[in-house]
Design brief:
The structure is a single chain. This protein is α+β, with helices and mostly antiparallel strands. It folds into two domains: 1-58 and 269-321, Uridine Diphospho-n-acetylenolpyruvylglucosamine Reductase, domain 2; 68-266 and 324-373, Cytochrome p450. It contains 14 helices and ten strands. The chain has helices spanning 3-15, 39-47, 78-87, 90-114, 119-124, 126-136, 143-156, 165-184, 190-196, 206-237, 241-247, 252-262, 294-297, 326-350; strands at 19-21, 33-36, 52-53, 116-118, 268-273, 277-279, 282-284, 289-293, 351-360, 363-370. The strands form three sheets. A five-stranded mixed sheet has the order 1-2-8-5-3. A hairpin with a 2-residue loop joins β9 (351-360) and β10 (363-370). α4 (90-114) runs parallel beside α14 and α10 packs across α12 (252-262). The model is unreliable at 1-6, 58-62 and 66-71 (pLDDT under 50).
Length: 373
């Protein structure tokens, strides 16, 4: 976002009303965007799915990215939400926590013995991919190729999906074959749970399951990676915090929640008005896009006391706004919590102290004194 967005955000925060910026084109065939940066108005937009849609009109029907539930309105997917809840059960979460801690130790042990690591490429990218692969039941023999595909599509996404079309098709075929295998030979993995989850006599279609797999690899993966980086930067910037968390690991989850309030992994949330409507007295026309700046919203002084101050003892982290999409709420949020808690518990409990070294513009090296892993 450029400086004009920052100034408009300030105006929106001060007045409470959305502020229109005609110079930004967030979607194809749209001109301008409404900035919504106060918590009250943002919460209203995210909760009112009948008035503000997450379905973006420029996407083509049948496109695998269009079919992701992340961009679809929850009211249209009551059955799918019920099925997802059955698949992502409490029992699965328990087993997931055990698996994540095991994977975290496996990734960190050799790096911590070395005493230094490049945090992004050696950890923040590696652990989320391995966890998602294990969750879905991806055969280990496919991990190298799948990782290459995911990285290629992720890096090429900003240049347009068309450039990654061949890889998308390969991924689509890969998941079709894996799903067919799971139908014939069920396993104790999330894909199998999705396939056999049933509600009101209905089940997920193959396309539904593929869309969830794509969501995990192309949405959750990036958000977990960014969450790692943002939390690391805040924890290392606050004097004494590492030592406190190492001594009081029960505070780690609260520290992570507060760090992500201040620096959300995915700060930009977009919605489309599906009808003419007023927000705090400001008329919004049907079809106009609204941009919610989560970083600004989650520093609203009307909701968060001393909003720019790190305070992990806050009791209202439940009011921190995220994407509002159902898959984020039902799968990505608990998955992110489990992965980040396990990772930072391992780092903080087993490392006496670690520090960031910014000696490369695109890399984050951390060095640490370690106890044991």
């Amino acid at each position: 976002m450029n400086s004009s967005i920052t100034e408009l955000s300030r105006r929106s925060i001060i007045t409470g009303a959305p502020v229109y910026d005609p110079g930004i084109q967030p979607l194809v065939n749209t001109n301008g965007v409404w900035q919504v940066n106060r918590h009250k108005e943002a919460a209203t937009v995210l909760a009112d799915h009948r008035s503000f849609s997450g379905e973006y009109p420029f996407l083509q029907e049948g496109d695998i990215f269009t079919d992701q539930l992340i961009i679809n309105d929850p009211l249209q997917h009551t059955l799918l939400r019920s099925l997802t809840g059955k698949a992502f059960s409490t029992q699965l979460i328990y087993h997931l926590e055990t698996m994540v801690r095991r994977e975290c130790h496996a990734v960190l042990a050799p790096l911590m013995r070395h005493g230094e690591m490049e945090f992004v490429s050696e950890f923040a990218q590696v652990l989320p991919f391995q966890v998602i692969s294990r969750l879905l039941g991806i055969p280990a023999r496919n991990n190298v190729q799948l990782s290459a595909w995911v990285q290629a599509v992720t890096c090429g996404y900003s240049s347009g999906i068309a450039q990654s079309a061949q890889i998308i098709q390969q991924l689509h075929l890969f998941f079709i074959e894996l799903i067919q295998e799971r139908w014939e030979h069920p396993q104790e993995d999330f894909i199998t749970r999705l396939l056999f989850a049933e509600a009101e006599g209905e089940r997920f279609s193959t396309q539904d399951v593929i869309a969830i797999c794509f969501f995990l690899f192309f949405e959750s993966y990036g958000n977990i990676k960014n969450s790692f980086i943002n939390v690391l930067q805040i924890i290392t910037a606050i004097p004494g915090l590492q030592a406190h968390l190492a001594a009081q690991p029960s505070d780690i989850s609260q520290a992570i929640a507060e760090a992500l309030r201040l620096s959300p992994a995915s700060p930009d949330i977009l919605r489309i008005a599906v009808k003419d409507i007023l927000i705090s007295g400001t008329p919004i026309q049907k079809g106009q896009p609204l941009h919610i700046d989560a970083a600004a919203v989650n520093r609203d002084s009307a909701v968060f006391t001393e909003p720019h101050t790190f305070n992990m003892t806050r009791t209202n982290h439940c009011q921190v706004l995220a994407s509002g999409a159902y898959l984020h709420q039902s799968i990505e949020a608990p998955l992110t919590t489990i992965v980040l808690n396990a990772a930072f518990e391992t780092l903080l409990i087993h490392a006496a102290i670690f520090s960031i070294q910014y000696n490369h513009p695109e890399k984050i090296f951390i060095s640490f004194q370690h106890r044991s892993v």
